[in-house]
Design a protein that fits this description.
Layout (H helix, E strand, L loop, with lengths): L1 H8 L43
Amino acid sequence: MEVVLDLYSSVHSQEEPLINMDEASVQLQGHLYETIPMKPGKDKKEDYHACS
C-alpha cells in the first residue's frame, strides 16, 4: 500500500501522467445509510453503494 501512496504523491509530467482507475464505473451520488463519524482510533464509515 505504501508503494501506491508514494506513486500517487510523486510529481507527474506530461510524458508520464497519473491515470486513476476505479473498480467500477459508477459515481457515488448519495448515501443509502447515514455516515458514521470518525472517533479516536476509528475511521469514518461511509456507504459506497450507488444510488439510482
